[in-house]
Amino acid sequence: MSTPTSDVVIIGGGVAGLTLALAIADRLSVTLIRPAEDDQGASRWAQGGIAAVLSPDDDLDAHINDTLIAGDGLCDESAVRFTVTHGPAAIQWLIDNGVPFTPDPDPSARYPYHLTREGGHNARRIIHADDATGRAVVDTLLNKVTQHGNITQRNDLTVVGLLQDNQGGCCGAYGSDPHHQWHSLTARHTVLATGGASGLYRHTTTPAPSSGEGMMMAAELGARLMNLEFQQFHPTCLFDPDGPAFLISEAVRGEGGHLLNEAGQRFMPALDKRAELAPRDVVARAIDAEIQRGTQGHVWLDIRHLGDQTIRHHFPTILAHCASRGIDITQQAIPVVPAAHYSCGGVATDLQGATDVAHLYAIGETACTGLHGANRMASNSLLECLVFARSCAQALLTQTAQQPDQYTTGDREFQPLRQAAAVASPSAALSDIRQRMRAIMSQHVSIVRSDAGLSSALTQLKGLIHTVEALEDALKSPQGKRLHQALQLAILTVLAAQQRHESRGLHYTTDWLQQRPDAVASSLSIEALAP
Q1: What is the pTM of this model?
Q2: From which residue to which does any coiled coil extend (predicted)?
């Protein structure tokens, strides 16, 4: 077993994890644990862009107000104001680090980079790198991380848990390597940047989404989880049951794309004055309703009227990918369906990313900062990653400067990791259980819910978790441990949904159609899983 020690262990290598690593590495030693396959995380697949007040024609209060409206009454206004206010500086930091944002070709433009508009925004404030913004940001930051001498990357570990010191705080993480050996990595501070929980569902917008394992790692140490019932479904994922997931960016609608039903008619203008640019929960429910009324299993997203030149200029990635799947979007409408996309809930944190557990932080989609409330507004996610990673960095640098010997004085002793060698899991059985979990969540805990459906989901999920626990050696394998965590989070998600006796934002239930005037954010701990 190896036991390297660093100042900070960061679990997750998307925009949040990479930003934090670069922001602290000049003064602190960093171990960054990220997948060997660079395309595993959700950040790389983010197409649309990053929302921030950049144009002289825009203002901070307008962005704040749009975010509060989209969050449907459950945003923490202080978190919204904090995020929006620090947005422009975060974007400038990316520009200074060489992210190749798309310039505005108009010589009279009031801002040098092209800004688009997406659902919920009342101004053009989305800066982007063509239609592959996440990939551009990740590639740029990863290149700098790789060159930094104070950052050690580990891509050989599957992290399944956190280490706890004798005072109840976090002092690192542990995981298994490909040879089934356990490793512990100790640190003064541990940061979760592990992504959301879209992998709990059958249809998602990324090929290999996380299933909330990082959230459960934090909960196992005593951290609170908030707003788990608010799982966002992106309205437009490419419909291709036989192919991999692929997101059709909201920017397609932002530039004038129309949603059409089976009869070839637009349906959004009759439902919402914002039409295709209504918030995602509104659009996703409208599409779901059209699919239920129809027979083809999808609706159409049509941009042919924008013209060949505009389509090729703004959406080269989408154009090329759809072409590889046999669809020419300059000549054909795109078949689309809603798919699990973003978790508005997660580990409860403050404005520096600190959790309830000492020395444990969470940033990015795995955290619940209060920014998104009951529904995330388009392109506020990468903004949150950047702002809170930079804020967390300042907190870590300040704490380390004030307490330089805290970790090495012996005040935070911990029990060394003592586990038998990890075992190869019964992969077929665990894979089958995971698919059953996703089917249950997609059927009962999706865009439209009911009390009966939630009750059925809870019973079935509890049965699945008992099955995993009964499998010999399942919890001694990384695959089994992570599936157990996913099932625990699925159960907590159902419990959170059952407790919300109203329809609000992303939680829409046929049994509680009205909103409650006294609604507050939900909060659950791991104790809720007790029999």
Answers
A1: 0.90
A2: none
Answer positive or negative: Cα dihedral of 263, 266, 252, 119.
negative
Pairing status of strand 182-192 against strand 360-362: parallel
Cα separation, 339 vs 213, whole angstroms: 20
Interval 261-296: pLDDT, tens: 999 999 999 999 999 988 888 899 999 999 989 899
Q: Over range 132-139, report the average pLDDT.
A: 91
Q: Which residues are catalytic?
A: 280
Strands 225-226, 367-368: pairing kind: unpaired
Question: How many whole angstroms separate alpha carbon 317 and alpha carbon 47?
Answer: 9
Q: Check: CATH 2.60.40.420 for 5-230+344-402?
A: no
Contacts of 200 (CB under 8 A, 6+ apart): 211, 212, 231, 340, 437, 438, 441, 486, 489, 490, 493
Q: Which class would CATH give 427-516+525-529? A: mainly alpha
Residue listed under structure tokens 């829409």: 508
User: Phi and psi for 449 in degrees, rounded to 5?
Assistant: -125, 170
Report, in angstroms and rounded to the nearest whole number, the Rg of the chain calculated over CA atoms.
22
Question: Is 15's pLDDT higher than 70?
Answer: yes
